[in-house]
Amino acid sequence: MPLAVREGLSNAKVPAMHIGNTTRRGVTLAISAVGIAAASVALAVPASASSLDTNASVGQINAARAKLGCASLSVNPQLTAAAQGHSADMARTKNVSTIGSDKSTPDTRIAAAGYAASSTAELPLTTDFNASSTDVTKALLNSDKVKTNLANCTFTQVGFGLQAGPNALSYWTIDLARPK
Hints:
Distance between the termini: 42 Å
Helix content: 25-40%
Shape: globular
CATH architecture: 3-Layer(aba) Sandwich
Number of helices: 5
Order of helices and strands: EEEHEHHEHHEE
Number of domains: 1
CATH class: Alpha Beta
Largest sheet: 7 strands, mixed
Structural class: alpha+beta
Radius of gyration: 15 Å
Strand content: 25-35%
Strand order of the largest sheet: 1-3-2-5-7-6-4
Number of strands: 7
């Protein structure tokens, strides 16, 4: 059963997945996806960032990028630190947004992690615990609006964050950037 995607508000509460998206230019997009639990694949239960299969997710994204003639993304530890910190903040506050509880933005979090970026994008989202990173990435790539950032040839590096929340949700952040 394909994942149904509809546009929604950035802080909307949806049963299966909520995706927020922002780019450096300040354009904000949020979409909600319903039905990830109905995927026909047996799903793993992520309990912490150690459950995140970064290599598989990057492989999926890079395969989509290659079809568009884009270079592969490489995982950057500073972007990963920024993404993980934001996922932890979202899990603690139970709020999915590109704006942190301390009013931080993707740009300020990425810079605070020591990354000098010329451009950035961030995808914060929540899923039920039963969503694997490869299924989440597949769902994101099936959303034309989100795929626009994941397959944007401007970005050359990526970082992933995943944090289990106290409310039976997993909080994910994908930070994309290009260094100065």
